[in-house]
Amino acid sequence: MSNENNKGFRVKIQRFGSHLSGMVMPNIGAFIAWGIITALFIPKGYFPNEDLAKLVDPMITYLLPLLIGYTGGKMVYDVRGGVVGAIATMGVIVGSDIPMFLGAMVMGPLGGYLIKKVDDLFRGKVKAGFEMLVNNFSAGILGAIITILAFKFVGPVVEAISQMLSNGVEFIVDVNLLPLASIIIEPAKVLFLNNAINQGILGPIGVDQAKEVGKSILFLLEANPGPGLGVLLAYSIFGKGTSRQTAPGAAIIHFLGGIHEIYFPYILMKPAMLLAVIGGGMSGVFTFTLFNAGLVATPSPGSIIAIMALSPKGEHLGVLAGVIVAAVVSFVIGAIVLKTSKGEAEDINAAADKMQELKGKKSTVAGAVTGEATGADASVEAAEATNKAADFDYHSVKKIIFACDAGMGSSAMGASIMRNKVKKAGIEGVDVTNTSIANLPSDADLVITHKDLTDRAVAKLPDAHHVSVENFMSSPKYDEIINNLK
Description:
The chain is mainly alpha-helical. It has helices spanning 2-24, 28-41, 56-94, 101-122, 131-174, 182-190, 194-213, 218-221, 226-238, 241-257, 264-269, 274-290, 304-309, 316-340, 348-359, 367-370, 375-389, 409-424, 454-460, 476-485; strands at residues 399-404, 431-436, 446-450, 465-469. The longest helix is centred in the N-terminal third of the chain and has 44 residues, at 131-174.
């Protein structure tokens, strides 16, 4: 019974983290834009410029929280919810003296939820011709009320909580205990709890620190690709069977592409490898502290390219040193674990299944290490695709959308594969792109999702044609789609 309770609690935390990341991830580009402007034009930047540096404070104080608030409201109740969520967020922004990211994560969804309830209350009760009047004034009146409440009550409370968390982090840094955070962060990543930690705590505090001193080490705690790289390199040399064959490719995707999820099955396959990523993470953070390293904004995805791009002027060496040290330590510990282990060749497929069980849904990235869908599964997928294709006119397709939770890692990989197939087939006039399910465009003709997410996509965009796949990396349905498009 306790195992079921633990699993239920973990799933709730994962969903909470997914909800937080759903508000932040679509706006990562804005965070990076702010980080670039900060790195370039503040007094310690690459090209100090007093006029352009005036952009820094308004962006972090108003733009970024409002974007988060709008996105949070839109997730709950489309554009109307986003507008009210942004209005409500303004209350916590003005009601506090710090960047109000946590407040935006509260008020955005709350604003969207409340306007949805108000609309439900008036639905079917408004006389013809008065719909626009009621809609506009209901949103305006509700927005004014919750903005005032946010200004008076929510803003000060969230500011106090943020200050308490910030003081706790500063205490840990002051007593040189920050490397111990890896004991929590690295296992949490494998259990898919990293979004709750990163987006809920480290990210907002890191942004506040970056505003004050131009950088924050907190941006490096979870994003450091060194520990995962070390594990994959150890498997590449000392692994057995399929794990050794797939590890080099996984290392490239992880280190350059920033898709950390791809190394999780290698940890679950041999749980003792947690010692490698924890040791690598701790040594990396210790190295960052020695060099007083940090980043100007959140790197997303956690690619070495993004990390280097967001390193402050003249501090690339310290950041790179932390990544290298983490990789070396993780590799050494991982090599020892693999060399001293006895038994048959590791079953990477079973580990990938375990990862998906922990995640609470199928993992599209798992296909990169387990290979193509085979046998009966492939036949069933192909047959289903053929049957559905008979009822849909593929010649009318102009926009194909790959959709996943965050709209980044796995869906981007699937879209890239399909884009190459479309190009090789000589098919013109078909746009292939990726997004999150929450942001599916209304003009999408064909939506491709993992089978566990298709119901959500259909509910979001019922008029589009939907195709379910087992994994984005390799599905027989891709070739079926190409054949139908031709």
